[in-house]
Specification:
The protein is an alpha+beta fold. The chain has eight helices and four strands. Bound molecules: zinc ion (ZN).
Length: about 230
């Protein structure tokens, strides 16, 4: 799988991305969007504009109306409430909006059925944990976002073409593990590159290009890099 890096500096406001987050901590920009129009959802938009609104829509449409509405909105990977507030769940590994299948898996199988059963068993604690996770996560992911390797973004002007759904889209990114607020692992030293340099250095000494003294000094420098 390809591991594309996240920019370590925000291209819009130049604030360093110290947490290796998907979003700029200062201006909320989604750092994998080169058009600089996609942002992180605010808590208000995620809760009142999305979760609460969804609940109201489900009630006023007597559930069945919401299901029929979902058939249409799932074409853009959205639920009815997400369509109204311009938010989109993104598949972190492809970097693109969800397919219709992914949307039904997310909304019906995971959130409606699995979380519904878990709520029944735990008297609603499962749903509470699922939502509270959001507050401790650097990318504002809920637990179901984490499990599904998805992240919800706010795109007031719609998603740019590079983030729109594409059949059989290649996996461009590695999803982070399920740990709240976890930092990215430090980059591994390039042991292979150093080993290659050491061999090259030995060849130079043998060919008499560098002196024994220069060889020892350069060799020590390279070994320190490992
Ligand atoms: Zn920024």
């Amino acid at each position: 799988m390809v591991t594309a890096t996240i920019p370590d500096i925000c291209p819009r406001c130049n604030v360093p991305n110290q947490q290796m987050s998907l979003f700029c901590n200062s201006c909320r920009l989604y750092l994998r969007d080169e058009t600089m129009t996609v942002e992180r959802c605010t808590y208000t938009r995620r809760f009142f504009g999305n979760s609460l609104l969804e609940g109201v829509l489900i009630l006023v449409t007597l559930i069945i109306g919401w299901f029929i509405w979902l058939i249409f909105t799932s074409k853009t990977g959205q639920t009815p409430a997400k369509r109204l507030v311009n938010t989109y769940p993104i598949n972190i590994e492809t970097g693109r909006q969800l397919s219709q299948g992914e949307t039904w898996l997310r909304e019906i199988v995971i959130k409606f059925l699995a979380l519904g059963v878990a709520n029944g068993i735990t008297s609603g604690l499962a749903g509470l944990l699922d939502d509270i996770w959001l507050f401790f996560d650097k990318d504002r992911q809920t637990l179901h976002d984490k499990v599904l390797k998805q992240v919800v973004v706010y795109a007031p002007a719609g998603l740019p073409p590079s983030m729109q759904f594409q059949q059989n889209a290649p996996l461009r990114y590695t999803a982070p593990p399920i740990m709240p607020g976890q930092q990215a692992a430090p980059p591994q030293p390039h042991v292979k590159d150093v080993a290659e340099d050491l061999r090259e250095l030995a060849r130079l000494k043998e060919d008499g290009v560098i002196t024994e003294e220069e060889y020892e000094r350069k060799r020590a420098d390279l070994v320190n890099k490992m």
